[in-house]
Design goal:
The complex is a heterodimer of chains A (252) and B (268). Chain A is an alpha/beta fold and 252 residues long. Chain A is built from nine helices and ten strands. In chain A, the strands form two sheets. In chain A, strands 6-7-8-3-9-10 form a six-stranded mixed sheet, sandwiched between helices. A four-stranded antiparallel sheet of chain A has the order 2-1-4-5, with helices on one face. In chain A, helix 7 crosses helix 9. Classes of the chains: A alpha/beta (252), B mainly alpha (268).
């Protein structure tokens, strides 16, 4: 059962200042099966966010193709939920209405989408904040809303673009643990972009290391779940896997 | 010292209960100075009437029904003109803000006509439409249009792309992205545009009434000049200021508080 198939994907930009073409992504092929948790890790400029934006349909690809359950992707769509680094919550909507936005676009009646939204707020531990506005929440809480909003739309793939990069270190660890718990409960397919090696290893089943727009290597992460930082922090297997990925990233 | 503090505490409590006091108090020294200058008769009283004469004239005009009738005329003209200006301006601005071809084609034209101020249109409008409502409405619509368009374009363009992408990836169509994301996102700028537009429109209306009018506050003031009644001119000036304060404070400011400030897009 294949969920997402990326074949020979490439992206070429024209850099108007340099007056030349830049190959941001070069021939990336990748298979992500349903229910898998994959991390894409690499230094800035390695093309990881460009890849995610192409999967999300925000930017067109220059070559190759992306298929979701056999269907080619054209433009953004509700089958691919996105969690943004900047949270991208709608400031003029309450937390409840933010989470209920996807169902609203599908024409789900108000009472039903409120119920769905409350269920997903419960999942991320924010049931009490339903009637607040995003600017009244901390960064960590805002991103919980972002995750709930994406999940409430029941996407086939969840695309996460450095979602925890703009929260403080302690909150980040909590969010990472919560995400692994949610993944275990619901088994969404997740593609997670990060430049943080330990984050990638902590979360994923499989870490893909990118370099200069190409896949350098991939590492399977067979660590047991549930994963919590208190245990993994000093875990020998975690350390050796992190070390291995870090070496790959540094050689990139 | 303690007495002063007590008095201040009392004032703070009272003005908290009746916010209108906070608005009126700053005017007390202004009126006091006006009164003093008038009482000293530095200028002849016919040229420089004091607050008492102006207040009396205000009551007389109100009692005769002239002031209310003229005020009604002016406000209706402004409301009609502003509504038309907004109805034209916001869709135009959305088109320019979202479509680069429309921007390319319309922006220079917009700036060109912005430079031809409202009053500069009056000579040709008088020839075309004569001394009437058409001329006045044209001037107000024209004046309201530019601040609304320019600010709305700015607002539309400053809605973060991430929010539009988020909406699209949640299944929003282009139309829903417009209504659910771009319009609310542009709302603080739209309100600023309305605020400026109405302010300029109000001034343009008075100017138009002075030149074109057969009624209205501007006409009243200019008519008073013909009769040499400085008191009535001053009444008109005060009415203008008070009315604008009311519009701004009771309509525009609450609108701003309910949108941009509430959402954290504008700092309080």
């Amino acid at each position: 059962m294949r969920s997402l198939t990326i074949r020979d994907l490439s992206k070429t930009y024209f850099d108007a200042y340099a007056g030349s073409h830049v190959d941001a992504v070069r021939g990336v092929s990748l298979e992500v099966t349903q229910g898998e948790f994959v991390s894409l890790v690499g230094p800035s400029g390695c093309g990881k966010t460009t890849i995610l934006n192409m999967i999300a349909g925000f930017i067109p690809c220059s070559g190759g193709e992306i298929r979701l359950d056999g269907r080619a992707i054209h433009g953004p769509g509700p089958d691919r939920g996105v969690v943004f680094q900047s949270f991208a919550l709608f400031p003029w909507k309450t937390v409840l209405d933010n989470v209920g936005f996807g169902p609203k676009m599908r024409g789900v009646p108000k009472a039903e989408r409120d119920r769905t939204a409350r269920e997903y707020l419960e999942l991320v531990g924010l049931a009490h904040a339903a009637d607040r506005y995003p600017n009244e929440l901390s960064g960590g809480m805002q991103q919980r809303v972002g995750v709930a909003r994406a999940l409430a739309n029941n996407p086939e793939v969840l695309l996460m673009d450095e979602p925890f990069a703009s929260v403080d270190a302690q909150t980040r660890m909590t969010l990472q643990e919560e995400l692994t718990r949610i993944w275990q409960e619901r088994r969404p397919t997740i593609i997670f972009i990060t430049h943080d090696v330990s984050e990638a290893v902590f979360l994923a089943n499989r870490v893909i290391v990118l370099s200069k727009g190409q896949i350098l290597d991939e590492v399977d992460i067979a660590l047991p779940r549930p994963r919590v930082w208190d245990k993994l922090h000093e875990d020998a297997a975690f350390k050796s896997l992190s070390g291995k990925v870090l070496q790959l990233v540094r050689s990139a | 010292m303690t007495l002063l503090l007590k008095a201040w505490g009392y004032y703070a409590r009272v003005s908290k209960r009746w916010p209108v006091i906070e608005t009126l108090v700053p005017f007390l020294p202004l009126i006091a100075i006006w009164w003093t200058v008038a009482e000293l008769q530095i200028f002849p009283p016919a040229f420089f009437p004091g607050p008492a004469e102006v207040a009396q004239s205000f009551w007389t005009l109100l009692y005769k029904g002239i002031l209310t009738a003229y005020l009604y005329d002016s406000v209706v003209r402004l409301a009609v003109g502003a509504a038309a200006g907004i109805a034209l301006g916001i869709p135009l601005a959305i088109l320019i803000g979202l479509n680069w071809r429309a921007h390319l084609a319309l922006w220079p034209i917009l700036l060109f006509f912005q430079a031809i101020g409202d009053i500069a249109w009056l000579p040709i409008l008088l020839i075309w439409f004569g001394f009437g409502l058409t001329t006045m409405t044209f001037v107000i619509v024209y004046t309201v249009l530019f601040p609304v368009v320019l600010n709305t374009v700015l607002g539309v363009r400053s809605v973060p792309i991430e929010l539009q992408r988020a909406a699209a990836s949640l299944g929003a169509s282009r139309w829903r992205i417009l209504t659910e994301v771009i319009l609310p996102g542009a709302m603080p700028n739209i309100i600023t545009g309305l605020r400026n537009g109405l302010g300029y429109g109000w001034r343009a209306l008075i100017a138009a009434e002075i030149i074109v009018g057969t009624s209205g506050i501007g006409f009243m003031m200019f008519d008073a000049r013909r009769a040499g009644s400085v008191v009535e001119i001053v009444v008109g000036m005060i009415v203008l200021g008070v009315l604008w304060y009311i519009v701004d404070n009771w309509i525009l400011a609450p609108l701003e508080r309910a949108t941009g400030e509430r959402w954290g897009l504008v700092t309080k």
